Amino acid sequence: MGKISPLFLFTLVIVTAIAPLAMQIFMPALPNIQESFGVSLAVAQLTVSVSMASIALATLFYGPYSDRFGRKPVMLVGLVFFLIGSALCTFAPDIVTLIIGRAVQAAGGAAGIVLTRAIVRDVFERDQVASVLAYLIMAMVVAPMLAPTIGGAITHYFGWRAIFGFLGVAGVGALLLALRLPETHRETTPLPGLAGLLASFAALLRSPTFTGYSVQGACSMAVFFTFASTAPHIVISLMGVTTVEYGLYFMLISVAFMGGNFVAARISQRVGVKRMVLAGAVLSLIGTLALEILVAIWPTPWSVFAPAMLLASASGLSGPNSMAGAINVNPRAAGAASGLMAFMQMMTGAIVVQIVGMLDDGTPTPMTVAMVLCALVSLAALVGPFYLERGAARPAAA
Q: What are the CA-CA distances from residue 322 to residues 9, 305, 362 (Å)?
């Protein structure tokens, strides 16, 4: 494609940020929505878990369809659905309509999550992908970093419905930018159909490398989503912190995540994908254990957010590298690999978030236990593929 323009990279950042922005800006409003509709925490959590499941299902189709029809037209369709969902949420008369609107909005925003990764794989060389993804994610996190602060302020001064009006305006901006994107996928492939789609996913899952990186990434994201969806209830409802204060606390999480991404961007090529992912998984387990202990003995906002900063840094280290490791298993199926990995991340997060909501007992225990278990599985997922790769390398060296 020649020289990559700053506008090209900026567009990728904005389109990728739409779905995380919609998720994070909404979190401080969960207690208000629960009170507004007079529903339980488990029902209010459906606005999070159903939208995550919607993202998961949508990502299965964006990759293969973009391999067939090109990245740009599929991305534009997704952004239109994002705008429709935002409008439904803004004027939702009841919790059911709000949940449906969130599902439509999330399905549309998922286009950016999948297709920008595939575009990066189209444009950049294999050894550059991890670093470029790290820089993209680091830049992308600026919007989610500010999102809880913005969402808390909007909720405090204008009510939670105004959040979705704000997202509608952001979606229009993303759509206008996406219209200027060039097409990066010229060698289109036939649409596989349901049987072919499942076969391509099965082929990817037979790779221990893809499975290991994908499960690690899915459980790592589940740790984050469990925290992001449950922490507002704990910090706002149980500890008496305002939505504005919660947003300011959450900025620390985003700064830590951006720091981890910056380190990943600088050293991933030198250290290697496997070591970076392993380091992130180990730090994540340490952070979840620290969170569980501190909240039990010293229940304050700092006991929640201080260890969460370590979790965010760990995710910043491992995230771009596990993503790069997964989508490079078969470069010709980068779209399908990106979609399947995103599906695993979002569906795992949706299941864990809803379980935590159903087990709510008025204490942080369900959240902290779920986060520790997810961190353990994230670390364990790396053992099998790393062992098999090491075993395969010995005969080759001999």
A: 21, 25, 35
